[in-house]
Structures are given as C-alpha cells and as structure tokens.
Design brief:
Layout lengths: L1 H7 L4 H21 L5 H21 L16 E4 H22 L4 H7 L4 H12 L8 H23 L5 H14 L5 H14 L6 H22 L5 H35 L6 H4 L18 H10 L1 H15 L12 H7 L6 H10 L11 H30 L3 H4 L2 H9 L3 H6 L3 H10 E4 L1 H4 L9
Parallel strand pairs: 1-2
Helix pairs in contact: 2-3, 3-17, 4-7, 7-8, 7-9, 9-10, 14-16, 14-17, 17-19
Length: 453
C-alpha cells in the first residue's frame, strides 16, 4: 500500500511517469529489436523515450508557476456546487443531443441487431467522428467533457463525499457504454483510485465494486464490438493463423538445423544473423497479428499496440515524408493559425497499419507527434512542458485537480500533447488550477488564508 501511495502521489508524478515511459518505450523496443531485423526504428524509439524522460525531469524542476499556488495569491473563489451543476447539466444536454442525432447507437446495434465487427466499427466512428456540419462539434464536446471536466468533477465529489457521486458515476459509465468505448472507463476509475491510494477516499468495498464493474463492462464491450464474424472470414483468419504458425515452426527448425550443422563443421563461421531467431509470437508486435479470442485481443491491445503504433508513426514519417518536418500541420489549431492544410497524421498511421478508414485513427505517445512536427527540438520542448505540468499537479492543494495527473499521463502516453491540451481541455483545467479555488461550506468557514480546497 505504501509503495502504491508513493507512485500514485502527485508529488512523485514526474518520476513515476518517466520510469513507466522508459520501460514501455525504452526497454521494450530494445528487447523487440533483438528479435527482428528492423533495428533502426526500435532503437530510435528507445532513444526518443530516453531524451523525453530527461527533459520531463528537468521540466518538473522549473518553479515557473509555483508562486501562483501560494494561498496568499489572489484567486477566484467559487462554490464547488456550481461546478457540479454546470458540468453535469451541460453534459446531460450534450448526451441527449448526441444520441438523438446519431445515425445509430452501437450498443443497441450490438445487442438487438446482427452486425459484423467492421459494421460496428463504422457505427462507432459515425457516432462522433463521422459527424458533419455543426454536429462535428460534438466530438470536441465529448473529449472536453470526458477528458477533463467529468473526471475532475467526479474526483471532487468523492473527495467531498457529495451525495450525487454514485448517480454521476453511473451516468458517465452509461454514456461510455452507448458507443462501446472502452477507454472512457479509465477516466472514471483513475481519479477515484488516486483518492483511495492517497487516503482521501476510504471505501474499499466501493472501490472494488467500481473496479469490478468497469472491468466487466470493458470486457463486455470488447466482446460486443467484435460483432458477428461471418463463417468464411473466421475460417480465413484461422487458416492464416495456422499457416503463419506452421511457417514460423518450419523456419525455426530450419534455423536450428543450420546452427547445429555449423556447430559441427565451422563454429567460427556462425554470424550474428544466424543466431537471430524470431522468438516473438507471430507478428505480435505489429498490425499483422490476428487475435482469435477476446482475451487475446485485450492482451494484444494493452501490451503490443501502443508500442508498435509509436514505431509505425516513425516509420511513416521516414518513408512517406522522407523526414521532412510537418511544422505543426498535424494540429487543427496550428494549421488554422498558420493557414496550412491539416495533415490527419493519426488517420494516415491507421491507414499505414490496417488500410484506409477516414473515421479511424492510430494515436501514439506524445513525443512522436513532437518529433514529426518539430524534430528533436520538439521532443525536448514538449517534454519540458509535460514536466512543468506534473509540477503544477504536485504543487496544487486541490485534491480533485491532483487526482487528474494519472489521466493526463495516460492521455499523453497514447496521444499528442497539443490535442491533449486543447481538444481534451487540459489547458483550461490548468488555468483553473492556477487561478480558481472551488470552495465548500467547510472551507468557506475557514479564514481565507487557510483555505484548503
């Protein structure tokens, strides 16, 4: 418990994130590189992770905004109930409009109709990403609500023991369930888990029930999202998988026989290439892997997809764009500000991996976005900003704000920093953390200089 409290503490957020970053995007790529012939991209990915980690630690030491977290500074004081009322009322209206205007609701289609996984994927994309005209704003509304303001409001509710915390949690989960979105459950659980580990929320039974419900819903979503697989397609996938395994087995036996023969004849002639036998499961760390069960799919998505997607983002940059910096063109905001055409890089990465789909995207860790736009200088600057953000979480006395740091870390570990700050609302959240104090009846009764939110 003490170790978990230490690693989840906002005070240690920068160090915790850097350690995990280096394990996932530093150590793992170097291990993968040992069993493949595609060396350069994996080494480059590990090097980026190392440079990013160092810059994050440096950024976390910069006291640029420390003074603003001093209680003697002038801050806007607002009763927290107005935060909850505003956020949840607007979210309820948003959810109603989204459902009423959606061409189809994926959950209902999966439960009451017969659709393939491809058809359900199309419905999930059309639910928000495929909107046109004024409805395109619904996607940004969803990311704004689910990315920051609902988790922040929930964290404050649980910290303040607000009676509306359970209905609010159920409402959040119900919205995520409508379009079979698995990642949104993380937005619910993470802030509450932080509060529990920091002993700000003490219901063990409640936490266990919440975790069990979210895991169950995530698994159900995975099963439902796969849809009904046509028999011909299933047979084709099984045949491809069996053929791949047989080929891997044949090549491994051939390599073992060759190595044995070389050992008997000329041991000194054994080269490094003779020793490099692919011990990784067939194409596991690539988009070519074909999971045949829900459990296999979940493991592959959690373990392999984030790593090889980051590598594929680098591959695409070096092959299609020949290393020419995109100078912010991957960001809608920067493209509009500079008058350039936006490059939907995450869509191109998906096309590079699985084929063209205008509503599907493959996002990767934040420093790949920095690299393709601004090179190594971008990797350093973006990482300094990330470190500074972690310092803000550490310095704040608002437990709801501090509880969001794991979500911020999760977002930038699988998406770009620019979109995280602008589209997901973190820039606005940081402004609130710097200049706003949400009060309760208990804190209002305290002297102004002694307020703890």
């Amino acid at each position: 418990m003490n170790l978990l409290a230490f690693v989840t503490s906002a005070r240690n957020s920068a160090v915790t994130f850097v350690v995990l970053l280096l394990i996932v995007y530093g150590v793992a790529p170097l291990a993968i590189e040992q069993f493949t012939r595609d060396k350069n991209v994996w080494i480059e990915l590990a090097l980026m992770a190392s440079v990013s980690g160092g810059a994050i630690l440096l950024g976390s030491m910069l006291p640029i905004f420390d003074r603003q977290f001093d209680e003697r500074q002038v801050r806007l004081r607002i009763d927290v109930k107005y935060l909850h009322i505003t956020v949840w009322a607007l979210f309820a209206l948003f959810a109603l409009v989204t459902v009423m205007t959606a061409p189809a609701v994926p959950l209902f289609s999966a439960l009451f109709e017969t659709h393939t996984g491809t058809e359900l994927d199309a419905q999930r994309g059309a639910f928000l990403k495929g909107r046109q005209g004024w409805e395109a704003a619904l996607l940004y509304g969803s990311t704004l609500f689910t990315g920051t303001f609902l988790p922040y409001s929930l964290a404050r509710m649980y910290f303040d023991r607000n009676k509306g915390r359970v209905p609010a949690t159920v409402g959040f989960l119900a919205y995520a369930e409508l379009f079979l979105q698995k990642a949104l459950f993380i937005q619910v659980v993470t802030p509450i888990f932080y509060l529990f580990m920091q002993r700000k929320f003490g219901s063990v039974r409640g936490l266990v029930l919440l975790f069990a419900a979210c895991i169950g819903l995530m698994y159900m979503n995975t099963v439902l999202a796969r849809g009904v697989l046509p028999q011909t397609e299933l047979e084709k996938m099984v045949a491809q998988r069996e053929a791949a395994e047989q080929e891997e087995s044949r090549l491994q036996k051939q390599a073992e026989n060759n190595t044995s023969a070389l050992n008997q004849q000329e041991p000194s002639n054994i080269t490094e290439d003779n020793k490099r036998i692919d011990l990784i499961p067939p194409k596991f760390f690539s988009a070519k892997f074909l999971p045949l069960s829900s459990k296999e799919h979940v493991v592959w998505r959690l373990v392999a997809v984030p790593i090889f997607t980051a590598a594929d983002a680098i591959r695409l940059f070096e092959t299609k764009y020949q290393g020419a910096l995109l100078m912010g063109a991957t960001s809608t905001a920067i493209a509009l500000a500079t008058g350039t055409k936006r490059i939907a890089y995450e869509v191109e990465v998906f096309a590079f991996q699985w084929g063209r789909n205008d509503t599907a995207a493959s996002n990767s860790v934040y420093f790949t976005e920095a690299f393709v736009n601004f090179g190594w200088a971008g990797v350093v600057v973006f990482s300094l900003v990330v470190g500074l953000a972690f310092r803000m979480f550490a310095k704040s006395s608002d437990e709801g704000f501090k509880a969001i740091w794991p979500l911020f870390a999760y977002n930038i570990s699988q998406a770009g920093l620019i979109g995280t700050l602008l589209s997901n609302g973190y820039l606005l959240l940081f402004m609130i953390g710097l200049f706003v104090t949400f009060t309760t009846k208990e804190t209002e009764a305290l002297p102004k200089a002694a307020v703890r939110v």
